Write the structure tokens for this entry.
Amino acid sequence: MSEEPNARTSAERRPSGGADNKAFQKAGLALLIRFHVLEKLAKIHDPKNDAFQEQGRALFESLDRLLAEAEEPASLRIRHGALLLNGVRLKSSLGTYPIFRSVMEELRRRELDAVTFKPGLTHDELFRFMPIFARRERKEGSPHARLQAEIDAANILHVGVEKASALESPSNLNRSAARIFFLSIVHLKESFRRNQESQGINVHSTRRLMQSIYNHIVDNESFVFGLTNLKNHDEYTLNHSVNVCILATALGRRLGLNRGELVDLGIAAFFHDLGKLETPLEILNKPDKLDDGEREIMEQHPFKGAEKLVLLQGSRRLPLRAIHVAMEHHIKEDLSGYPRYFDKADVNLFSKIVKVVDFFDAITTKRVYRAKVFTRSEALSLMLEQSASEFNPIILKAFVNLMGDFPIGSLVALDTGEMAVVFDLNPDPKLALRPTVKLITDASGNKIDGDVVDLAERDPATGRFARTILGALNPAEYGVEVSDYFLAQAQ
């Protein structure tokens, strides 16, 4: 992820002082929230509706004040996975993150880099623009071109929409994310080989890879989450470690860790199972319960992993917390598990994060020694039941919120008789049960390559939701490989 260029246009002017910047951030956040609220209202209400009118006036007042003070257009822009207002990066928090994500997703769905409101904007123009922007018709061709044509036809002169660059298009972002995912598996496999041959691991390359993973989570979180549904049973440890790395990085981001900490967390999660290289395959893949001797060998892998990381050539580039994670990722919140610890304060935060995502990915993956494969929703329910003894409750709660009621990759049954795969979560907490899904069967159960639909959309004639989820299904029982639908998005 490159940094913003030093050269600044007039539309990228920064507030001059700390107080000015704080005031600008406050005004920018208020504008963003009002834009988000009005866009959601425009999906379900006519502009004459009282709620639309009230929120529309609030947004217009925010824009009018900003345009008067800045004496230039007010441009809301996506850049490097962040939202900028007139070139100033708006700062999100845990509470406002869903709004930021929602606005960015709405811009990307319309192939937009920016929406710009120009001096001279009228109340009437804004009220005509928002329903056009909010419309989500499924048609062929460019969403940006259709939006621009409708703006022109409505004679809206003081709102501009800027087409996204080719590199930022959803298809290119998906292809790039898939490439990084498989490159991560290759790099981990090579790292394991080098370690077994006492050649050392190139931690510098690993760090660059973690930075790329972080960038893709920022730019394309939903699709990256979708890729974690890939389960290569022949190379379980490799695939599992990459999934844990992605989910841990995303969870750490939700918990408020900074970029440097997230890269270190990614490295730690990437190598958390390095010690399993010393565990015989006949024990790792034994279909029956381990005997006491085998269990003792299995429980040595945290020590073996920590030892290998300590001895790594170039270990000065390795975060110290990676050694903690290798040692501690099987320690439970009540300090049972292995190895034994006697003080909760001794267990590293990174270890507690990896503990949560490691358990989740493990029980949602088919293994020879486990008859039950949990769906993602079932896994989260089970983890919540065990929160007091198994997981840090605050970290687990953040993870459950991150994954949603129907996590990305869930197979769901709809009240229309159709089946669908969850492709994206709804960032509005009030619509958490209404994600975006891809239809994979028709109402009669016939497999189709269906549309991607937003379950928050309503039938214009009745005002009712067009589709509603009845419940989650087990993909294995229906012969569905959900990862295939995400890989298709990268083609």
Notes: The first strand starts at residue 74 and ends at 79. Residues 11-168 form one domain.
